[in-house]
Design goal:
Elements lengths: L6 E10 L5 E6 L5 E4 L7 E4 L5 E3 L4 E5 L4 E6 L6 E14 L5 E10 L10 E10 L10 E14 L1
Parallel strand pairs: 1-11
Antiparallel strand pairs: 2-7, 3-6, 4-5, 4-10, 7-10, 8-9, 8-11, 9-10
Length: 154
Amino acid sequence: MRLFACFTFIFVLMLSVSASAAVTTIQAMSFGHFISRDNSSQYDIVVNTDGSYSYDGAGYVMVTPPQPGVYDIDGLGANGNIDAVLLTQNTPLTSLSARSFQIVNLTETHPATTDGLGVARFRIGGTARSSGNGTNYIDETFNGVVRIDITVSF
């Protein structure tokens, strides 16, 4: 007998820059709502920064599609070069029942420089990977935290 579960992911963004910056969420990153068919192997849901996505049909039935995160970060200084961006998963996507998904292969796109007001738009994607431990997932929300470190030259 297979158990099915629907999932909602909430993606929290942390920002680490030396300047006083703020994050405006244009579109929150989401791995969508889906039904887990099987957890006897690890299965992936991939969301790309361009909005395309893929998932393993042996592991999931997609109910609502995933979407990349789109975030405006301001206070970075006008027309500054964006020298480096580092994405780090601070916590896996976990639920109240202690089940989890790992976020792997985080990706991002950004402009080469901030605009004249010191704002840059970042698009974030990545892969949510099931545990593959055989434990069935239940219908619940999973939350996680990803940190972004940005280096900007003024």
